Amino acid sequence: AYVHDDGHFTGPPNAPKAHGTARVVLSVCAPALHCSNPRGIGLGSTRPVCVNPAVAMTENGTAILVAAAQDAGAAGCSAPVGVWQSVSVHGRPFGPATRIVAAGDSPTAAPDGSSSAIAVLNPGFIPYQTLAWVTVSTSSNPVSLHRVPDPDVTNQAMVAANATGQFVLAWIHASSHHNAKLSLKSAVGTQTRLGRPRLLAPQSQPP
Fold it and tell me: DSSP secondary-structure letter at 150?
């Protein structure tokens, strides 16, 4: 997945509610590197200035896109307009994108079964200080947003998962919002439950 026209405005960059022409382009490749023709996909009726995509491929060939879109704000791409999902099954074209979170950014994803993936993102609006995860799949059922119990996250998480639905998150924790000391935390979970966060690396002053 890549983004076409990322950061392009339809009007002056500092104009209120300026829109853009960014769109996600997708191609599914076989092991022999035979790839389908790139295909752009719209994120509902939005016209975002920037898009941050993440993709995951399950063991049975289900490809999952999770993409966060932003309009122009006071500081560049700083007005989230939703996080979206789209799924391709067995190499078929990706289906229409559906919005799974009203606002958020910085998604990352990992396959956690034959037809699903765990997606982790910063929900809400800038400044992002929390993390949440959702299970994205071929099901048409609404997704549930689960929040990580840490109110002082400073960066997006990394996620790894296995085929039985277990996953591990790792993220940066800040001791405060001013002159913060940073530490590395992690937690292990399943699709609906996250264990107690654990400290992996102690606090230190950021470089």
Answer: -
DSSP symbol at 168: E
pLDDT digit string, tens, across residues 130-161: 889 988 888 767 678 898 888 777 666 899 99
Measured CA distances, 193 to 137, 155, 198, 201 (Å): 17, 21, 15, 23
pTM for this prediction: 0.84
Angle at the Cα of 191 from the Cα atoms of 190 and 197, rounded to 5 degrees = 50
* β-pair partners for 134: 119
In angstroms, what CA-CA distances link 179 with 11, 131, 166, 206? 37, 21, 35, 9
pLDDT score of 10: 57
CA distance 39 to 65: 13
Residue 164 DSSP symbol: T
Q: How far is CA 160 from CA 36, 112, 137, 145, 163, in A?
A: 27, 8, 16, 18, 11
Phi and psi for 65 in degrees, rounded to 5? -105, 135
> What pLDDT, on a 0 to 100 scale, did the predictor assign at position 12?
55
What are the beta bridge partners of residue 161? 167
**Per-residue tokens: 2:** 């890549």
Mean pLDDT, range 59-72, rounded to an integer: 89
Residue 20's Cβ-side half-sphere holds a number of Cα atoms within 13 Å equal to 28
